[in-house]
């Protein structure tokens, strides 16, 4: 299984790119959103990948984060969703938007992706709504973009070793903390995910665990 491609971007199209890895060009199919966010042609890039194997096809699908790759795995478990539809969904909504739509049962947002009709959109929401919370809880842990590493390019001979880069500061996963708090209070994962998704629509609240929990609790409170 090829899980990662790192090299020099030598061609970009709306739905695929070609990456040169030490003289071998790999065609990787990507969403339009991913294609637009990659660096200019001639620069180093890296993608997580999934290999599609069929009798008449070997195809690499590329993702900028493990979070998108995990959503792709879940999406393609739904009958009628192949790589093309999965990339259309991720390209239209992004990983966070897709998770929010599924958690809220918003099949109308899912239907906005090219090639997704009402019945398929409803099936995706119905089959993945209970699975969405676990992926949303992983959120930040899987959403770190792949920066091109030094191993992308053959190392040049140098008289002095490079100083190792300082480790990145850990990022807080506000969604995961809020989901954990709500489920510990007895709410079901699906209800908790839906409330957190709605509360997260406010950018200020989404970046503060305490505010996110309070907002979600207000949404979960019984209505008179």
From TrEMBL:
Record GO biological process: DNA recombination; DNA repair
Origin superkingdom: Bacteria
Location of this chain's protein in the cell: Cytoplasm
Stored Gene3D superfamilies: 5' to 3' exonuclease, C-terminal subdomain (1.10.150.20), DNA helicase RuvA subunit, C-terminal domain (1.10.8.10), Nucleic acid-binding proteins (2.40.50.140)
Positions of region (Domain I): 1-64
Keyword Chloroplast attached: no
InterPro entries: DNA_helicase_Holl-junc_RuvA_I (IPR013849), Hlx-hairpin-Hlx_DNA-bd_motif (IPR003583), NA-bd_OB-fold (IPR012340), RuvA (IPR000085), RuvA_2-like (IPR010994), RuvA_C (IPR011114), RuvA_C_sf (IPR036267)
Molecular function GO labels: ATP binding; four-way junction DNA binding; four-way junction helicase activity
Record GO cellular component, one term: Holliday junction helicase complex
Domain Helix-hairpin-helix DNA-binding motif class: 73-92, 108-127
Region named Domain III: 167-224
Keywords: Cytoplasm, DNA damage, DNA recombination, DNA repair, DNA-binding
Entry remark concerning the domains of this protein: Has three domains with a flexible linker between the domains II and III and assumes an 'L' shape. Domain III is highly mobile and contacts RuvB.
Cited function: The RuvA-RuvB-RuvC complex processes Holliday junction (HJ) DNA during genetic recombination and DNA repair, while the RuvA-RuvB complex plays an important role in the rescue of blocked DNA replication forks via replication fork reversal (RFR). RuvA specifically binds to HJ cruciform DNA, conferring on it an open structure. The RuvB hexamer acts as an ATP-dependent pump, pulling dsDNA into and through the RuvAB complex. HJ branch migration allows RuvC to scan DNA until it finds its consensus sequence, where it cleaves and resolves the cruciform DNA.
Family: Belongs to the RuvA family.
Quaternary structure note: Homotetramer. Forms an RuvA(8)-RuvB(12)-Holliday junction (HJ) complex. HJ DNA is sandwiched between 2 RuvA tetramers; dsDNA enters through RuvA and exits via RuvB. An RuvB hexamer assembles on each DNA strand where it exits the tetramer. Each RuvB hexamer is contacted by two RuvA subunits (via domain III) on 2 adjacent RuvB subunits; this complex drives branch migration. In the full resolvosome a probable DNA-RuvA(4)-RuvB(12)-RuvC(2) complex forms which resolves the HJ.
Annotated protein name in UniProt: Holliday junction branch migration complex subunit RuvA
Native source species: Pseudothioclava arenosa
């Amino acid at each position: 299984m090829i899980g990662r491609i790192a090299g020099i971007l030598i061609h970009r199209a709306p739905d695929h790119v070609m990456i040169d890895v030490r003289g071998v060009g790999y065609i990787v199919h990507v969403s339009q959103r991913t294609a637009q966010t990659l660096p200019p042609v001639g620069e180093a890039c890296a993608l997580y990948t999934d290999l599609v194997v069929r009798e008449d096809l070997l195809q690499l699908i590329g993702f900028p984060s493990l979070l998108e790759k995990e959503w792709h795995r879940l999406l393609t478990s739904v009958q009628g969703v192949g790589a093309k539809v999965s990339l259309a969904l991720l390209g239209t909504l992004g990983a966070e938007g897709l998770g929010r739509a599924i958690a809220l049962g918003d099949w109308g947002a899912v239907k906005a992706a090219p090639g997704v009709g009402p019945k398929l959109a409803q099936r995706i929401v119905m089959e993945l709504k209970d699975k969405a919370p676990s992926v949303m809880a992983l959120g930040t842990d899987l959403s770190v973009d792949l920066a091109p590493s030094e191993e992308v390019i053959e190392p040049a001979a140098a008289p002095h070793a490079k100083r190792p880069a300082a480790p990145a500061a850990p990022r807080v996963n506000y969604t995961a903390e809020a989901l954990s708090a709500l489920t510990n209070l007895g709410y079901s994962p699906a209800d908790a995910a839906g409330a957190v998704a709605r509360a997260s629509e406010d950018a200020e609240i989404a970046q503060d665990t305490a505010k996110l929990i309070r907002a979600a609790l207000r949404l979960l409170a019984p209505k008179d």
